[in-house]
Design goal:
209 residues; alpha/beta; Methyltransferase, Methionine Synthase (B12-binding Domains), Chain A, domain 1; five-stranded parallel β-sheet; 10 helices; elongated
């Protein structure tokens, strides 16, 4: 573990992060060890976010720095850590094409060590069913920024139940108009207010915390 890299990542010092990654790579330090240090720093970023020392802009910045650093290692940000943190499937429900919130969540989840499967926007129920069967995630995320699409989330979750896939999967929902009442209405497990909450919930449910 490189304390220098952990601290630089935690402090969002992009230049120092990239410089240290290059130095470690030149010393033939295994890429997965470097990724582990970056993720340790991301963990500190998450704690600072929860303590309101950092805000959403810093959270997004940390993910961008992580991704840039991982590109120096051959784009291993999401690879090599899937066996430890598991797979997370994410998409924006059908009839909704908003992607900013989804993209933030997928980026932050990936930089925290999850193998992220991004289904995109306007995702039909059948695509969620197919992804769950193929990737066998324990947690999936459904993004929605339109109240008119709430019934679509409900239909999707009901279909997962009919297909026998619901009992093994936690369904997280999020988006501007989504609240606890929405969660109860559509039959989801949890409302995530931000990307860091998605990370924390997923880690606890997967037993990696």
């Amino acid at each position: 573990m490189s304390n220098k890299l952990v601290e630089a990542m935690a402090d969002l010092n992009e230049d120092a992060v990239l410089e240290e990654v290059k130095a470690l790579k030149a010393k033939n330090v295994p890429a997965l060890d470097i990724i582990a240090s970056l993720q340790e720093g991301m963990g500190i970023v998450g704690k600072r976010f929860e303590e309101k020392e950092y805000f959403l802009s810093e959270l997004i910045m940390s993910a961008e720095i992580f991704n840039e650093a991982s590109q120096l290692l051959g784009g291993m940000g999401g690879a090599g850590t899937a066996s430890k943190y598991g797979t997370f499937v994410m998409g924006t429900i059908y009839d909704d094409i908003h992607d900013i919130g989804k993209n933030i969540v997928t980026t932050v989840m990936s930089s925290n060590g999850f193998n992220v499967i991004d289904l995109g926007v306007d995702v039909p129920t059948a695509k969620y069913v197919e992804a769950i069967r193929q990737y066998k995630p324990k947690v999936i995320g459904i993004s929605c920024l339109l109240t008119t699409a709430f019934d679509n989330i409900k239909e999707c979750i009901q279909t997962l139940e009919k297909e026998g896939l619901r009992k093994d999967v936690k369904v997280l929902i999020g988006g501007g108009p989504v609240d606890e009442a929405t969660c109860k209405y559509v039959g989801a497990d949890h409302v995530c207010r931000n990307a860091q909450e998605t990370v924390e919930y997923s880690k606890k449910y997967m037993g990696v915390q």
